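Task 17 of the worksheet. Students: predict the tertiary structure of the chain below and write it out as structure tokens. Keep your answer in the requested format; marks are given for formatting as well as content.
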Amino acid sequence: MANMDYVVKAFALFVDGIGKAGTGEKVALPKIEAETEMFRGGGMLGGVNVPHGYKPIKMTFELNSFDPQVITQSDIFGKRAVAYSIRGFADGDGGKQHTIIFQGTGLLVTSDPGEWAAGKKVALKGEVDLTAATLTVDGTVLYDIDLLNDVYIFNGVDTYAPVRAALGL
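Model answer:
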């Protein structure tokens, strides 16, 4: 039997604290992807990937309207860190209901107002380089990553604490 839990039914995007409910067409939460290097020492039968941290963390979104407030967030010489939040509602089997909250801080590196045609909606696409990202489901923090403050919490465990301690941070 298929598990139909955590089916996202609705979401709202907030950019710098301003809600975009009704205009958010799509959002892509960031991929959390390890940065690895192949290592094969003497006598090893084969190589293994050794993690050294994470690849840059990015999120994307698409709005169904031309939005000057969002476009102005791409000022890379002005405000550096902008808060982004995505709040989602999911449900599934047995009437279960879930709240999904993503919070991130970063720089809008792409602001693409797309092609315009008379009588057609305009899609504004954005890409954000994140320096911090937190994903919470039903009040439980799945991950909390803050690249500038060396915070790496996964499933409630601060996995980077020994590194910070060793470095005196």
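Marker's comment: The mean pLDDT is 89. Helices lie at 68-71, 161-167.
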